[in-house]
Amino acid sequence: MDGPDASTATTPENDYGRVKLRCRRGTRELDLMLNRFIDTQYLSLSIDEQSQFDQLLDQHDPVLTAWLFGQDQPGDYSLARLVDRIRQTFRH
């Protein structure tokens, strides 16, 4: 059989579900922030921004907590902009 199987093909819905699962973290605060963002903003992100969000989720919980609660910031400008966007989403 040629081509991807429909059950394994990457679609925005499949990707959303995978990323949504990755938003389950070790603390309630992170869960709330990340889930609010993904529920309200993720599907409107560009492909590059979705990839950056995936990179953000690669971080350990203490790093994410420091970034999202303003105790530290990512050295990467694109990640820093995304962190700011997540903070803004949570404030509203």
Question: What features would you describe in this structure?
Answer:
Helix 2 packs across helix 5 (77-91) and helix 3 crosses helix 5. The mean pLDDT is 87. The chain has helices at residues 12-22, 28-40, 47-57, 61-68, 77-91. The protein is mainly α.
Which descriptors apply to this entry?
mainly alpha; DNA polymerase, domain 1
Question: What secondary-structure arrangement, pairings included, does this model have?
Answer:
Elements: H1 12-22, H2 28-40, H3 47-57, H4 61-68, H5 77-91
Q: What is the count of structural domains?
A: 1
Rg calculated over all Cα atoms: 14 Å
CATH hierarchy class name: Mainly Alpha
* Largest sheet properties: none
Backbone shape: globular
Let me know the number of strands.
0
Q: Percent helix among the residues?
A: 55-70%
Provide the residue-averaged pLDDT: 87
Supply the helix-strand structural class.
mainly alpha
CATH topology: DNA polymerase, domain 1
* Strand content bin: under 5%
Give unreliable regions as ranges.
Answer: none
End-to-end Cα distance, whole Å, is 49 Å
* Gross CATH architecture: Orthogonal Bundle
- Write the CATH homologous superfamily: Flavinator of succinate dehydrogenase
